[in-house]
Amino acid sequence: MGVTAQPVSRWRTRNWRVSVTAVTLAGAIARLVGDRDSIAWDEVYLYSWVHGKGFGQMMHLVAVKEKTPPLGFVLAWISDQLGSSPSLIRIPSLIAGVALIPLVAALGRRLGGQRTGLVAALLVAVSPFLVFYSVEARSYSLTVALCTASTLLLVRALKDGRRADWAAYSLLAALALMSHYTAFAVLAGQALWALAAFPRNRKSILLSQAGPVLAAVIWLPWLKQQVDNSSDELHRIAAISPLDFGNVSAIIGHSLVGHPLTSIARLPGQWGLGLVLVGVAIAAVALVVDRVRGRAPREPMGRPNIWLLVVLALAPLALALGVSLQPGQSMLLARNLITAVPAAALLVATLLASRGKAVLLISAGLVTTGLALGTVIELRDVQRPATGAAADAIASRWKPGDRVIDLCCLSGGDGPLGTALALQLTKGPRASLTVLSRGGDSAYAASLKTNGRVFIVGYQLPRASAPIFYAPPKAWATRFHRTWAREWPGLVKTVAWEFSQR
């Protein structure tokens, strides 16, 4: 019936564990490099809900203001107690993002064998999509790690039948559901596959659903408000990503080989995408040739196990498409497919690992290099806006009497505690800060009343000569001239300008 891979020697097991550890360390380094990014966009809202709040107040805000369940906020709240840096709220995502690598390795080993598990871990470690969300404070990384861990425990429980494994699976399924509602697709897929593939275990499978069902019942009093909040979000997504073939194919491509917020042409680029496609094609051709010649795969995966991965890879997409069929609603953002990525990586790894050593080394090397190229581009050129670096640069030059104008407050990027820039400024510059979207021309008018300098921070698009929203009135422009400038690359360029009196 599947589930269990071939046994291997103790020596090979030790080498496999060493290899997985090395891959995990490499993935951890990439994620720690990414963690240097400033908090941005939705992270600012999360920080506003947890920072300086009591536990009860935080839970109330999540229940009435948010659209996702509370586990990620609870863990972010705990992390925020460790110090004053806003980036502390990313600790749960970082831990989950690193933990996902050995979890995928262990699941691949259970389903297909050691080579399958190791190759899948390698793909997950260098995935630019997963690296990005491993340093995103929202609960996407936590959800995908919990879903993968629950799948691993389900497979183990079906094989061994231990009550402890069934109980642990039920608990992890509940935690996954309480981290993000998109986990429902994976949990439903797990249960349906298990019932179809292991009908003799029907009683244990059904009893194990008590965990997520109980969690949903406990959270039920707050669910309606969150559903209403989610409905507003789905309408906003529909305005920018309605249901059509182009948007569906785009989010699939971004989740598998790219980045959620930029084009595949930019990341991983033509070279990166080409390497991935050539690597997969080589393994696919080798598979066809071996089938024609009657050669058995090196690490055969049972059909039920393959069906499990297919179900888990398609279930999140099916959920997104189902919701997007509703008039005026859409779930077509790449982040909503994150729970499908481990299963997709395992399917690709199954293909790569099933051929001979030469094909494995060449094909896996090409695919890994293509994904790693995307991650290098992400960490070097496609960072989140560098508001933290801009805040540090201003703090080193700011003096009493100077003022700061914030042009960075784009839609959705401003939390109740202030903008991303405000959260990272020191006390003096923060007190002199005016946000343009709130103050309009008064932001410039206030600076006309001071004899000090004015610092302006904003986002600048490619080939533009000034930041977005930079439009000072004539009286201001004739009085000040620019005396200093800094810029930082990223998804959008962050610029800081200093103006002095003429």
From TrEMBL:
UniProt xrefs under Pfam families: PMT_2 (PF13231)
Keywords: Cell membrane, Glycosyltransferase, Membrane, Transferase, Transmembrane, Transmembrane helix
GO CC annotations, alphabetized: plasma membrane
Record membrane topology: Multi-pass membrane protein
Domain named Glycosyltransferase RgtA/B/C/D-like: residues: 68-220
Transmembrane segments: 87-105, 117-134, 140-158, 170-193, 269-289, 305-326, 332-352, 359-377
Localization: Cell membrane
GO MF, any single term: pentosyltransferase activity
GO biological process, alphabetically ordered: lipid biosynthetic process
PANTHER family xref list: MANNOSYLTRANSFERASE YKCB-RELATED (PTHR33908), MEMBRANE PROTEIN (PTHR33908:SF11)
Protein name per Swiss-Prot or TrEMBL: Unannotated protein
Organism this protein belongs to: freshwater metagenome
